[in-house]
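Bench log, entry 3. Co-assembly request; chain sequences pasted below exactly as received.
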Amino acid sequence: DIVMTQTPLSSPVTLGQPASISCRSSQSLVHSDGNTYLSWLQQRPGQPPRLLIYKISNRFSGVPDRFSGSGAGTDFTLKISRVEAEDVGVYYCMQATQFPLTFGGGTKVEIK
Amino acid sequence: QLQLQESGPGLVKPSETLSLTCTVSGGSISSSSYYWGWIRQPPGKGLEWIGSIYYSGSTYYNPSLKSRVTISVDTSKNQFSLKLSSVTAADTAVYYCATGATDYWGQGTLVTVSS
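Structure output for the full assembly:
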């Protein structure tokens, strides 16, 4: 199984300031079709997860442009350019390059 | 826009079979544009993929659960289902149905395993 490791576990951020979350996979996420199936999900308190970013850097429909994804191979980053109150929650990276699909352990974003 | 909704018992006894259904609206479950999956989240913990099913009927399961899991599709009802046998307290979780690419999710349903 591909192990997904996220850092930090928790990220206290001041409103309006940037936040960054890292995700590392135990092996390359480049699929044989040339795509890299690395996604980022947001889970607000009491809500189901919501897709933010797919294939490293593509924002899903309706996702604000303050969210951006980058990376390649085994190292990936989610950035929030200016954190807003509604961004509080837990963020997960997920790989769908290989079954079983696996998730990172989650990073909690909270307001200082 | 696709909408997914889980349904099923919220309480299951140990050693019995957990059965959940996901009803899809806003699109056809037979569409080749999607595949379908189940993901669970124990209280206060992270996400665990259970398995997925393609429109062709092909299934893929988490090896840690494979011997106990069955995912199937009922195209006549636009639904797909999860069966997890021989449950224990460790299977207590919120169970989510989602598109396989996780672009659309249900609200989730809490299933508690207890006698």
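The longest strand of chain A covers residues 19-25. The interface with chain B takes residues 1, 39, 41, 48-51, 54, 60, 92, 94, 96, 99-106 of chain A (CB under 8 Å).
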